[in-house]
Amino acid sequence: MRPTIDLPLVVDRGCGVPLAVQVAGQLREAMRTGGLKAGERLPSSRHLAALLGVSRTVVTNAYQQLYAEGWLDGRHGSGTYVADGALPYDRPAARAAEARPAVYKEAAPPGVVDLRPGRPWVLEYDTAAWRRAWRSAGEAGPDAFPDPYGHPELRELLADHLRRARAVPVGAGNVMVTRSTSNGLDLIAATLLRPGDRVGVEEPGWRAARRIFASRGAQVVPCPVDEQGVIVEALPDDLRVLYTTPAHQYPVGGRLPIPRREKLLAWARRTGAIVVEDDYDAEFRYDVAPLPALYGLDPERVVLLGTLSKSLGPDVGLGWLVAPADLLDAVAERRDQLADRTSGPVQRAVATLLERGDLDRHLRRMRLEYARRRAAIVEALGPYVRGDTAGLHVMVPLPAAVVPGLVRQAGERGVLVDTAEAHHFGPPRVHGLVLGYGSASRADVRRGCAVIRELIPPEGV
Ligand SMILES: Cc1ncc(COP(=O)(O)O)c(C=O)c1O
User: Fold this and answer.
1) Which residue, of 3, 152, 240, 339, has the fewest CB within 10 Å?
2) Taking Cα atoms as reference points, which of 4, 79, 91 lies closest to residue 48?
3) Residues 238, 316: one domain?
4) What pLDDT, in 10s, does the model give residues 88-113?
5) Are residues 282 and 329 in the same domain?
6) Structural domain ending residue among the three candidates 312, 331, 356
7) Number of structural domains, the chain?
8) Does residue 337 sit in the same domain as residue 280?
9) How many angstroms is it from 78 CA to the middle of ligand 1?
10) Which domain holds residue 61?
11) Mutual angle of helices 442-455 and 403-412, in 10-degree steps
């Protein structure tokens, strides 16, 4: 082990962990705990390699990994800097000070039109059905021995729901009840990954997926998408896991066509990778029926993740993980070791909603409402709108130079939007706005889009 002069970094050649993973891990920790602060410059790769007595490739690989995770920024000119958004995760005050729209949890102030994606409409559920579900959930007491797979009745009901709504040929034996898609991803990562394993995540893509895999020690590999979804030819052959959103790519909005689904599965069979299918938004299509899930096309290679976060609300805390039986058993064992579980009362309440058809009715109602809001966006911004007729968001591609000013001016006029740039891990390759219509009323969607329309320069497409 050789200590460095400038930074308290050490590498241990005998511990079996790749050197680049060790270097990245220690730098990440320094940024997480505030030892390295936003804007600080890191040593050049040549200098750090010399200090550590490692090859320059080790340091460049470590920097690339941290760059992909969003910790580093190389765009200030020459040199490598700690990115502005690289916050010490264990300091809530620092997190609250983050000015970017990535702080999704905060509600918009009254009077502000919130067109940021990723939020569902939680005001229009059937209160009678909701109360009934909770009354029935309260009839049974707490369970002293929570089952890591989830309640057997709910597993049956979810399997039935997936067979009907997603044409997935699945039995209850392949279903685990989770708290959310993110919980499912974390369980898969905790079960399958060893430090340094390479995990592909769509680029641009869901930030939480990248962070979850990185927090489990994976090396995150950004995998480019086009308007139809992930580009199979661009996938490297050494991925342990690929995370993808084929039903409605987040945030570009495409739907992976059947021939590409088949190509993707052929790639997975050839390379041995596991495909994690985030069945994001699949319940919200407004034109044709959703395409069959990848899981149904190859149940031995695919893990399917679903959630009620978008259909009922993220704080309900219920999702599902569908996997081949062997893998599901391994996940259940790991889950048990981690003392991770889904609330029993929540499972009972959701079982009642499914059993009585209340969830289906709610989805039918919300589909109509979301379709109208989407139509309002298309009416206002017609030629600028991209993405399938589905889900809770659209993409508005714009020249890179236009985006920051437009976001600022929209904010000044009381309209919050998100950008495609913010969903990248590496240098942005897709530019424009990502507009969500989950949490704004139809009137607000119209108001917000009218403002955006005025701000788009005439040559804006
Ligand atoms: C791509 C994607 N998948 C899944 C989810 C839902 O995640 P969870 O079930 O963890 O709330 C979101 C939420 O914003 C998302 O953007």
Assistant:
1) 339
2) 4
3) yes
4) 443 333 343 333 433 444 677 778 89
5) yes
6) 356
7) 3
8) yes
9) 36
10) 19-91
11) 130
The angle at the Cα of 79, spanning 77 to 83, to the nearest 5 degrees, equals: 85
Q: Are residues 267 and 364 in the same domain?
A: no
Q: Is the pLDDT of residue 5 over 60?
A: no
Residue 297 CA to residue 225 CA, distance in Å, equals 21
Q: Is residue 451 part of a domain?
A: yes
Query: Do 349 and 387 sit in the same domain of this protein?
Result: no
Query: pLDDT digits over 272-319, tens only?
Result: 999 999 998 888 988 888 888 999 999 999 999 999 999 999 999 999
CATH code at position 26: 1.10.10.10
Query: How far is the centre of ligand 1, averaged over its atoms, from the C-alpha of 391 (Å)?
Result: 12
Which structure tokens are listed for 242? 């690929």
Which of 369-375's residues contact partners 24+ apart within 8 Å by CB, and which partners? 369/121, 369/124, 369/442, 370/121, 370/284, 370/286, 370/437, 370/438, 371/286, 372/442, 373/437, 373/440, 373/442, 373/445, 374/286, 374/437
Report residue 104 CA to chain centroid gap.
12
| Per-residue pLDDT reduced to its tens digit, 20-46 | 878 888 888 788 777 788 888 888 888
What CATH number is associated with residue 385?
A: 3.90.1150.10
Integer CA distances (angstroms), 390 to 254, 279, 369, 401, 435, in order: 9, 13, 12, 28, 13
- Asked if the structure places residue 322 within a domain, the reply is yes
Residue 206 CA, closest ligand 1 atom number? 1
Which atom in ligand 1 lies closest to the alpha carbon of residue 184? Answer: 10
- What is the CB neighbour count within 10 angstroms for residue 35? 14
Which of 212, 220, 205, 222 minimizes the C-alpha distance to 189?
A: 212
Determine contact, residues 320/178, Cβ cutoff 8 Å. yes
| Ligand 1 within 6 A of CB of 150 | no
* Closest listed residue to residue 157, CA positions, set 360, 296, 309, 300: 360
| CA–CA separation, 48 and 2 (whole Å) | 12
Residue 52's contacts (CB-CB under 8 Å, 6 or more residues apart) are 2, 4, 9, 11, 23, 58, 59
Indicate which CATH number applies to the domain containing 331.
3.40.640.10
Instruction: For residue 73, report the phi and psi dihedrals to the nearest 5 degrees.
Output: -135, 125
**85 and 153 assigned to the same domain:** no
In order of 72, 81, 109, 290, the CA distances from 19 in angstroms are 19, 21, 47, 44
For position 393, what pLDDT does the model report? 94
Residue 243 in contact with ligand 1 by CB distance below 6 A: no
